[in-house]
Description:
Layout: H1 3-17, H2 23-35, E1 43-47, H3 51-61, E2 70-74, H4 75-83, H5 92-100, H6 107-128, H7 132-143, H8 147-175, E3 182-183, H9 184-192, H10 203-229, H11 251-260, E4 263-264, E5 271-275, E6 278-281, E7 284-285, H12 287-295, E8 299-302, H13 303-307, E9 311-313, E10 318-322, H14 325-332, E11 342-344, H15 351-362, E12 366-370, H16 375-387, E13 393-395, H17 399-404, H18 413-416, H19 425-437, H20 447-457
Parallel strand pairs: 3-4, 10-11, 10-12, 12-13
Antiparallel strand pairs: 1-2, 5-8, 5-11, 6-7, 6-9
Helix pairs in contact: 1-5, 6-8, 7-8, 7-10, 8-10
Amino acid sequence: MAKVEEKILEEAVAYFKQNNGFTRFLKKMQEKYYSFERETPGTVTIGNPTREEKEALSGFMKKDYSRNKNISISLKSFQKRLDETRFSGVTIKEILEQYFGEEIISHKEQKRRESQSLQIFIEKIKKFAKQPKTLEKIETIFSQNGEEAARIKREYRKDKENLEKELKKAIRAIEHLPQKQESLPIFAANVNGDPHSLDRNKLAGQLFLKFLLLKEREIEEKSENKNCQKEKQKENLQNVDGANRKNIGTTEEIAEIYYHNHILIDEMSNMVLTRNLIALKDGKIHKGWQEFYHRHEAMQITLYNLSQIDTIKTNIPKCLIVENPGVFANILQEEDLKEIPIVCTYGQVKLAGIILLKKLLEAGVELYYSGDIDPEGMQIADKLKQRLENHLILVGFDENTYQKNPSNVTLSESRLKKLEGLKDEGLRQTAKLLQQDKVAAYEELNIDYLKEMLRGWKELKD
């Protein structure tokens, strides 16, 4: 800007600053410019103008506003009036920027600049990555719509230096996944020098989990494409671990994602009860499991234990899974059933239970699940069946069992509401009975039937 133009602009700003009657109107004009892209964006209105505002605007616009309850002036007419004064050649935008001491950038322009800046940031992050697959994941994370991407962009606006540090921690982790099972804190310490760097309450931990979910999706998509080419051949149970990944969210589902990538969380307290199962590592029988098997004793299996073996087998091609420890203990007392394979999941099925059941499925073992006929028990059964891709036979969830074993427990409407989300058709039919009778039936009341069923399995023993 030439010196003459700068002087005229300074004089214009001084003129408007010396009269407080212009202040509110100029602020409204500034807001208009932030909202619009064009040079003279629309009309500005101030309500209930003061006497000082009426006099200032009347004097400048050469129009009487003394009786107006609202004063509306188009910015086009305000600019035209400016050009008729000694301030000709100066724009409203220039005056506003000098008056308020800040550059006016429209929302549209702000978004354009932010997008451009973000793209430069992404390119910088991509240079840190060493693997092509990581580059794809970075692109996906930043291009997605939704809350996750929005949160990352908010973090970028708030502190892009911190976002860069956290992204690099996540990238190091995804590119150096352990080759054998390792505790999450140990893995985090190895790759980032901080055992808590990949905790899920840390940004790097959340980004790392996002990378793992994208990796899981790639595996699933490859599997789906392969299955399409096979014209609906019988499903291969070896691939059951890649199932049902579209709605990851629960703690156990997330723990399973880590497990698939050789990372253990909650590895010692995450457990399941078993009896009469045989474990193998590198084709050899695990001696610890073998001793429990020979003694027909119950055994607590942790997630860590499961990470140390390859295969689980049984002496017969069937296994009963029960929900309640009391039922498990009662069946264990039956001498004639001491060789029958049985698992207890303690209610909600933890990851250790899921991994164990999938290993049994891979070995060709049929799984039979028994639980409570109440809203919570049916939810557990339904979810487990979905997680195992319907490779689960439900026992005692039918109409006959329900009618034979009613309890004295009345179900509230809030509990019955939980039945509405069931996916399995058989469970949905039983749910109608619960909604009608409003009474639960528990696994403990069906224990005699379970024992008789198990006695029928004895002839299958090798």
